[in-house]
Design brief:
By secondary structure, the protein is of the alpha+beta class. The chain has one domain (about 5-95). Helix content is about 30%, strand content about 30%. It has three helices and five strands; from the N terminus they run βαβααβββ. The radius of gyration is 13 Å and the shape is globular.
């Protein structure tokens, strides 16, 4: 199974496609972290976790898996499934367009 690569965050989203991001966020459904992990590229996710200052192991500090404020979601972006997490009100989208 091919896992979805990291595409963009809302901060760096292509300006001509903001309406599609808005629609994705408005129509997305909450999912578990477990379901999220089944569909996204793990190395891309590790890089995002590092950029968000998460520890790689719970004995070294807070991990993303241990942060109950992070939300995991899925929805359709241009007719294809996209998975994303919301951290500090920023959407990080995994999608293959």
């Amino acid at each position: 199974m091919n896992r979805l690569p990291y595409y963009s965050s809302c901060v760096t989203w292509p300006s001509g496609d903001v309406d599609a991001l808005t629609e994705l966020c408005d129509s997305a459904r909450d999912i578990s972290r477990r379901a999220f992990l089944k569909h996204v590229d793990r190395e891309d996710l590790r890089q995002r976790e590092h950029l968000c200052f998460y520890s790689g192991h719970h004995k070294q500090g807070l991990t993303m898996a241990g942060d109950y404020h992070v939300q995991y979601k899925r929805g359709k972006l241009h007719g294809k499934w996209a998975y994303f997490f919301v951290w500090s009100a920023i959407e990080f989208v995994f999608w293959e367009g």
